[in-house]
Amino acid sequence: MVNFTQTAAVEWGCSGVRVNAVAPGWVMSSGMDSYPPALKPWIRSLKDAVPVKRMGTEAEVSSAICFLLSDGANFISGDCLRIDGAASQGGRVFPLPKAKNSDSYDGFHRSETPDIFKDDE
Description:
Layout: H1 2-12, E1 21-24, E2 27-28, H2 40-45, E3 56-57, H3 58-69, E4 80-83
Parallel strand pairs: 1-4, 2-3
């Protein structure tokens, strides 16, 4: 996907077309409630592998996409924006410390916590 994004950005740049991609990590969404109950402990533990020690929100992903679509991103093309709390930064040699100052952004006025995470509230 990254190669396609970069190639398309080069091919279409002269026509004024910007091509970017996003690569979200684990995002809390109602879709997680559709998995079998046996996966619930594993899904709830995903945040432990993320340096910021939490999962993303739908609003954090959509806000990044809105930025890439905005005039403020007119000089950004051929890039892939990772929205994953640094989870993609490679393997872990030692346990990750508890994260500080990483509050979720929730810009949706009607968002709801998926059932699988309601015990965490």
